[in-house]
Write a structure and sequence with these properties.
With 753 residues, the protein is an alpha+beta fold. It is 27% helix and 25% strand. The protein contains 17 helices and 33 strands. The strands form ten sheets. Strands 3-4-5-7-6 form a five-stranded mixed barrel. Strands 8-9-10-12-11 form a five-stranded mixed beta barrel. Strands 13-20-19-16-15 form a five-stranded mixed β-sheet. The radius of gyration is 28 Å and the shape is globular. It starts with 10 loop residues before the first helix and ends in a 46-residue tail after the last strand.
């Protein structure tokens, strides 16, 4: 009888083996431990790649594997801040877990200059399992090149002091008079730090004046510069955009008689998609989704193309947009304005009465939108209150759109799309660019209608490119990490619900859990936990499907004005269909892997900048409301304290450990709780609280709260400035423990969710 091949180990067995190993191991050691030979090594390699993609394992420069949440003996660290006590703190450059540890860096006598914020260093990690691990500096790998945004204060000698706008950077910079570039007190400036001296403040020079702290539009500019967004277009790219002329009809289909309409938000700045729908005799629907033909105007390798790739995506702030393409294209030739001939790539879609895609085709065409509608207009018209613009369109245009939407919505429910409630905050600005209101954005069926049309077109694009064996930049979303599912199951069990773990979990199972929790006090907690369990979507030429949407293949086709991934898909469609100029180049096809990583990074950069700006707007909005009491809930539990999100505005802030009742708190990472060792008092994720606003800091966009005890009706009385952990001790209890962030047993500070 032939020897049977040993079975491949499970992911859990591999994780257990690596955890028990004294040091990082390679694929060879794992194969030897589990007696894997020959072809089994190929399957093992794929399994290890999945574990890395799931964020469970991390690989170092020598291709050795270790747990993503474990610190190695030696690590490359990025210096993230210098605190008020002068301690230099860093985080691992390579870290894929939920919470990156914050490491105190000891410099000893190894360098004449201390590392500066943004530097990368090689460090030996002393006691990596400690709550506050120490990194002993071995050498500096690279000086910081990233510029710093801050607030300038002019000093008597003509120089100045700059306070960083980044809340993580606690160190002020000094600027010599000859390097101040004329900046005055209150100016928001961009500075280039010099090498940090061993003692004393770091010097810097002003490289640009962004605006003044009183300027209405400076908040978004701070966020843009802080995250390194390219603001101005290169002259050759701008010149190419201005010189562009409307695409001719040529071989394009003439669809100018079709009743296309655009449906966007009231504050939309560009219109790159138009739609129409018509009923079929068999009960199905014919849809057309017309998307601006950006690939005609932006050719591979051109100055416009290079500028668009450098941006990767448009970034939207409450008062402005940092566009991926110059306005001559994004707001003009590629904006589907009503009554204007516009070149498009059109997806023709046929769906059955159940909303399933039966067939589709793509063509280049010329369209002429008949109306620019808003979501509110369309929804109001559908609900029976049409206005002068929508009344003539109600029967022949709007009603068929909703009919097709109902079919698509039924198909979405049938395939089990993940039904998460992710409220979106909206900053409403006045004509003077001052904040009028901050609150949740309304979700209408008209929003969902456009979303379902776009999803159908995106699916059709991915299916077409795959069928024609043409490269596709997929939008992929992996299944959740089993370890995160296990953590969710532990939290759910703690509140009396159940959730299966140790098996493949489908989106429908998450939906059933959410439905069971809906209407209970724990619904928001469960919704947050399910959201945190999900992997991050990204772009890649290798398809693994889109877990959240329940789709086997998916890409982004519908927004080439604002996403470079869509431009690549358009070029691939043009090439695969032989539709003329502007198709995908051989050079770009060869770089698809690199391009996928690049545009995924740019997307994350843009999202971070948008969130940063929103935090700053919220802090400005609440700056005169210190002392007010708000209803909120706990949305983060860390060793630094609690993060609380307010119910009305969605604003989030920190309740430092020093503002919690005196105790030594144990941080239960799996169950997301802080429990007092002496009192047994517990704070948990999702808990409803009443919060007193201690500080709103517009400079950094940070909020600080103190929780009100049960029965307490007001916070501590203020005297002059707000009671703050930094500016006052009036509201701060006497410490029996190290400073905030040193209590509890968590390794590091929280990451933004």
């Amino acid at each position: 009888m032939a020897n049977r091949k040993p079975p491949l180990p499970t992911k859990e067995q591999i994780v257990a083996f690596i955890r028990e190993s004294a040091s990082r191991v390679g694929k060879r050691e794992i194969a030897r431990a589990f007696h894997i030979k020959g072809a089994g090594r190929i399957a093992l390699k794929a399994l290890l790649k999945e574990l890395r993609a799931d964020g469970v394992l991390a690989r170092d420069e020598d291709r050795r594997l270790g747990l993503a949440n474990a610190l190695p003996e030696y690590a490359t660290l990025a210096v993230i801040r210098i605190d008020g006590d002068g301690e230099i703190l860093g985080q691992p450059v390579e870290w894929t877990g939920d919470v990156a540890p914050e490491i105190v860096i000891e410099t000893g006598r190894t360098s004449s200059h201390a590392p500066a914020v943004g530097d990368r260093i090689l460090a030996r990690i002393r006691d990596p399992e400690a709550a506050a691990p120490i990194g002993v500096l071995i050498r500096t790998l690279g000086r910081a090149e990233r510029k710093v945004v801050g607030y300038f204060e002019r000093l008597a000698d003509g120089g100045g002091r700059v306070r960083p706008a980044d809340r993580r950077n606690k160190s002020d910079y000094t600027v010599a008079a000859r390097e101040a570039s004329g900046a005055g007190t209150g100016d928001v400036v961009l500075i280039q730090p010099h090498a940090a001296p061993r003692f004393g403040p770091t010097r810097a020079k002003v490289v640009a004046r962004i605006g003044h702290e009183d300027d209405a539009g400076v908040i978004s500019l701070i966020a843009a510069h802080a995250h390194g967004l390219p603001i101005d277009f290169p002259r050759d790219a701008e010149a190419d955009a201005v010189a562009s002329r409307p695409a001719p009809l040529g071989d394009r289909a003439d669809l100018r008689a079709a009743p296309f309409v655009t449906i966007d938000g009231e504050d939309a700045r560009d219109f790159d998609d138009a739609v129409f729908a018509a009923a079929e005799q068999d009960g199905g629907w014919r849809l057309a989704v017309a998307i601006a033909d950006v690939s005609w105007y932006v050719r591979p390798g051109s100055p416009l193309d290079r500028a668009a790739l450098e941006r990767g995506t448009s970034v939207y702030f409450p008062d402005r947009v940092v566009p991926m393409l110059p306005e001559a294209l994004s707001n003009e030739l590629c904006s589907l304005k009503p009554g204007q001939d516009r070149a498009c790539l059109v997806a023709h879609l046929w769906i059955d009465r159940g909303g399933r895609l039966r067939k589709h085709r793509f063509e280049r065409a010329l369209i002429r939108s008949i109306a620019r509608l808003t979501y509110e207009q369309v929804q109001t018209a559908h609900d029976g209150q049409a206005d002068g613009m929508t009344r003539p369109l109600l029967d022949d245009v709007i009603a068929p759109l909703y009919g097709a939407y109902k079919a698509l919505d039924a198909a979405r429910r049938q395939r089990g799309t993940l039904e998460l409630d992710v409220p979106e905050r909206m900053v409403e600005m006045g004509p003077d660019k001052r904040i009028r209101r901050i609150g949740p954005r309304r979700r209408l069926d008209s929003h969902k209608l456009i979303e379902e049309f776009m999803i159908a077109a995106n699916v059709a694009a991915a299916q077409t490119l795959e069928a024609r064996t043409t490269p596709c930049m997929y939008r992929i979303h992996d299944a959740p990490d089993p370890l995160k599912i296990s953590a969710l199951a532990d939290v759910v069990a703690g509140i009396g619900l159940s959730f299966a773990k140790g098996q493949s979990v489908r989106p429908a199972q998450f939906n059933r859990l959410l439905e069971r929790a809906r209407g209970t006090p724990d619904w928001e907690l469960i919704n947050d936990m399910v959201l945190r369990t999900q992997a991050q979507a990204r772009y890649a030429p290798q398809n693994i499907g889109h877990y959240g949407l329940g789709l086997a293949r998916y890409c982004h086709f519908t927004s080439p004005i604002r996403r470079y991934a869509d431009v690549l898909v358009h070029r691939a469609l043009v090439r695969s269909h032989g539709l003329g100029e502007g198709g995908l180049s051989d050079d770009q096809e060869a770089r698809f892997d690199t391009l996928g990583d690049m545009i995924s990074d740019h997307e994350r950069r843009g999202v971070a900048a948008e969130r940063d700006a929103l935090d700053r707007y919220v802090a400005v909005f609440l700056a005169d409301k210190t002392g007010a009491i708000f209803d909120g809930r706990v949305t983060g539990v860390t060793r630094a304290g609690l993060f609380v999100t307010l119910v009305d505005t969605g604003a989030s802030g920190l309740v430092p450990m020093s503002f919690l009742p005196r105790d030594f708190y144990h941080h239960d990472i799996r169950r997301q709780r802080l429990t007092g060792r002496d009192t047994g008092q517990e704070f948990r994720l999702g808990q409803r609280v009443r919060a007193y606003l201690v500080e709103a800091e517009p400079v950094t966009g940070s909020l600080v709260f103190r929780l009100l005890a049960e029965g307490e009706e007001q916070g501590p009385q203020r005297k002059g400035k707000s009671a703050s952990p930094r500016s006052s001790t009036a509201a701060r209890p006497a410490r029996r423990h190290p400073r905030p962030g040193r209590r509890g047993d968590q390794k590091g500070p929280p990451r933004r969710h």
